[in-house]
Design a protein that fits this description.
Elements lengths: L20 E3 L3 E2 L3 E6 L5 H14 L15 E5 L4 H14 L9 E3 L10 H14 L3 E5 L12 H18 L2 E7 L18 H5 L2 E8 L2 E8 L8 E7 L4 E8 L12 H13 L6 H8 L3 H13 L3 E4 L2 E4 L5
Parallel strand pairs: 3-7, 3-8, 4-5, 4-6, 6-7
Antiparallel strand pairs: 1-2, 8-9, 9-10, 10-11, 12-13
Amino acid sequence: MDTLPVLPAHQLQRCAPEQRWLIEDLWGADAVGTIGGEPKSCKSFLALAMAVAVASGRPCLDRFAPHRTGRVLLFAAEDALHVVRERLEGLCAHAHLALPELDLWLITAPSVRLDIETDRRRLTATVAALQPVLLILDPFVRLHRIDENVSAAVVPLLACLRQIQRRHGCAVALVHHARKGAAKVRPGQALRGSSEFHAWSDSSLFLRRRGERLRLSVEHRAHPSPPDLDLALHVTPSSVALVAVQSATATDEPIPARPAADRDRVLLALADSDHPLPIRDLRARCRIRTATLCAILQDLQTDALVTKINGGWQACQSPP
């Protein structure tokens, strides 16, 4: 009889810190998980913000830096396609991006049913063909006709998504509703239906409304969870975006400005290089956190001091 493959523990593969995240502190690399929350708590908006961040390399919520960028595949079952486009264009305008430049794809089928074998095969084949780094399915309730409270019915559907993740190396984000009266329950346990959702998730995001603002809670299976964060919709005549506004542990203290010294170090490092620098190399030269570095680069690009080409960054002019 064939035996199962085994390895001594000391031969197990290591994972470099920069390879542990899809979006730093927000979503693990190749993680499956849920984006949960109460009705009208911007769950879909958060999912789109993640899509734009991974497809563009810009910080998600103006705070969380992507460590891996690439193609994103999205199925938005509840929103009309023109509404999805308008939201994406608003997010792009906020980040000074052009939607046609993003490698972001939508499944346009009227329905996808994970409880139907034919649809499971079609979804798997689509992922195999496009090879996205992130698959977003929004929301779970539109992907089946099962009883979400029955574990035996839920497990095969979640197992299908786990299999897609493992076979094709893509993260999977599943938008899911919270159950009624779950405002004071631990975020992962507030999801509607079976506890299998919480057990299945490697990364979990949960939104609760607090007046005009939203409270984001993050849980990870393999990483420490960051403090809760307050979010708000930032609206201008040409853009709308969900952004981090302040820490939930210091609700009256604004987010501190990025030091000018960090900004100057980034400019000098780019000016001293004879070729474009990717984020990893620039971070090593400047000794700045990835999230801070990405935010600085976004500011500098807005000021027309740096530009991104060939997967790296370069200075547009001599630094001060």
